[in-house]
Amino acid sequence: MAAGVPPDALGRRVACGTDYGTVRYVGSVSPTTGIWLGVEWDDPQRGKHDGSYEGTQYFKCRHPKGGSFIRPNKANFGVDFLTAVKDRYGLNDKQDVQYGTGNTVVFGTKTVEFVGMDSVAEQQRQVQLNKLVDISVRECAVSHAGQEEEISRTCANMRHINLSKNLISSWETVIAIASQVQNLETLNVSENKMRFPSTSTFISSAFSNLKILALNQTEITWTEVLLCAQGWPVLEELYLSSNNITVLERPDTVLKTLKLLDLSDNQLLDGNQLHLIAQLPRLEQLILRNTGISSIHFPDAGFGCKTKMFPSLKRLAINDNKISQWSSINELDKLPSLRALQCNNNPFMDTEKNPETLIQLIIAKISQLEVLNNCEILPAERRGAELDYRKIFGKDWLEAGGHWNPEKNKPSEEFLAAHPRYTALCLKYGAPEEGELKGQQPLTLKNQLLTLTIKCPEKPEQKPVEKKLPESMTIQKVKGLLYRLLKIPGSELKLSYESSKLEGKEVELDNDLKPLQFYSIESGDCVLVRW
């Protein structure tokens, strides 16, 4: 092999300035002389061709212009882990003090001799390295572990390591580093395009204490995840975003301790892929942002029943997807432990123009939800959402066979499929009365707008706010707006208003289901907020 080219150069990761790539060819390129490296670049715009030159194909690229040839002296093949740590934390020889010849040290223009200075400085560096618990060598060109057992001798107390965006070419290198860190708990090796085992191999004990692992942008497949997971016996958090994972498999004997799984930015084949990971017993948080899913369905449970899938799932993120039907939101009520949901940027949210109504619909459809899109759902807000839902769809319920008399109450299967919680809401609050359903107006900004001043008399530091509200807006919806507007704690709100025409007279807004117009509120009046 030519000078400057490692014997294992083929397949190695290299850097050239700020560009990263993988060596796909080492050798001559006719008619030139000398050794060339054929590199497939991570950023195809850095390349020039597909690995061919003058009609000869030297290597292949995924992108037609993703490759180019560079001389070996232009390629950085990286450094060992400890060298990167010492450079990063200023603990290399050249970064302590400026050494002269032999056992001398230079202070300004004076040269002073110290007997045994080298060994003393080395001992001090060892002490400092042994104190490091949380180490980050991100973008430090780490490519290999270095001498055997050197890391364990030097950095015995490391627990958290950030190795992201380096020049690691294979999972074996990660094992070689981790096996020397006895109490490793957190490891981030994201943004290293590396090779992973494709068959079941010797299970290393390197990750016996590992709880958090990030493998974002590493090109790992789900099959490879399951093979490697045999060596992660206590893993609790696994981050796998942006890996082109499209299909999943059942993790029959692995990932039993997993509490968080991030699959965001992987275009999954369909929502049914989720069924394959639905039996992870301890999974509490699942992040599926931008995974291309268009529907969610739990076929093992009927209307109003709980699924056996995802038994421990508390937090779910499905934002930035293609979910267009409200039926998928209905399905989420089947999850027995769900408490928090993120669902912004899905087509189903465009079906309701009023954001307040949209939030209320989601709250009413998922009975145990406590946090929606990072906002706490307060008890009064849930009550109002459920009461409004019961009223909004009351006419549909009657037309579908619903009845105030329980013996005659037989809503159709179609209605129950669209509104699986409606029966439970009627049991909770009673069936909607006929008077509630007459002359119902949808909340739109076409209704008469009232210009009102919002004041908090018991909080003088809270400045008055002027808002324009539709006169058909219910008191409950006003409260929901104020929770978010004023960021008030989750206790019960009490509203009243002062008329601009009757100074000193305060009228309590005591019925959550009544609209503002019921209380004869007019533009210019002042709404008083207490809690």
Helix proportion: 10-25%
Strand order of the largest sheet: 10-12-13-14-15-16-17-18-19-20-21
The biggest beta sheet reads: 11 strands, mixed
Low-confidence runs of at least 5 consecutive residues: 95-118, 439-447
Overall SS class: alpha/beta
Query: N- to C-terminal separation?
Result: 78 Å
Number of helices, counting only DSSP H or I runs of 4 residues or more: 13
Mean pLDDT, to the nearest integer, reads 87
Number of beta strands: 26
Q: State the shape.
A: elongated
- Total tally of structural domains: 4
CATH superfamily of the largest domain: Ribonuclease Inhibitor
3D structure, described in words:
Its main location: cytoplasm. This protein is an alpha/beta fold. It has four domains: 12-74, CAP Gly-rich-like domain (SH3 type barrels); 79-91 and 125-379, Leucine-rich repeat, LRR (right-handed beta-alpha superhelix), CATH 3.80.10.10; 380-436, no CATH class; 449-530, Ubiquitin-like (UB roll), CATH 3.10.20. It has helices spanning 81-88, 93-96, 117-131, 150-154, 171-178, 222-228, 327-332, 355-365, 379-392, 394-399, 413-418, 422-429, 475-486; strands at 13-16, 19-27, 36-41, 52-53, 56-57, 67-70, 79-80, 104-107, 110-113, 134-136, 142-144, 160-162, 186-188, 212-214, 237-239, 260-262, 285-287, 315-317, 340-342, 371-372, 375-376, 449-455, 465-470, 494-498, 506-508, 526-530. The strands form six sheets. An eleven-stranded mixed β-sheet has the order 10-12-13-14-15-16-17-18-19-20-21, with helices on one face. α8 (355-365) crosses α9 (379-392) and α9 crosses α12 (422-429). It starts with 12 loop residues before the first strand and ends with a strand. Residues 95-118 and 439-447 have low confidence and may be disordered.
